[in-house]
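EI: anyone free to look at a 110-residue chain?
SC: sure, send it
EI:
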Amino acid sequence: MKNLINIDSDGDVIYGNHVLRSIVQLATSEISGVGSLQGKGVRIDVIGETVNVSVGINVLYGVSCADVAFRIQNNIKRNIETSTTYKVGKIDVNILGVDFRENIDTTNAL
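SC: here you go
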């Protein structure tokens, strides 16, 4: 099994992309109003100590896209910065579709 986190010869912690991807996916799915990850899902660019994130989602019908996107950005930033040594530079939330699933209670998603 591969190590998810490595410590290089200088003692710095190096995170694998799949660790960051998992943090972003979980942070996104925690937000009410998110139907699913969509498209390429999550793209992460690490430049030095800064992480830039792009996530594509479907929102649930009847919720405010702007509110969902804002809450996703805040949750991703908080989770990355508390779980890793990285700082977050930019978070793009791309709303690619709307889920029209029946029997979904969206009253708590707003």
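EI: The first strand starts at residue 5 and ends at 7.
SC: 👍
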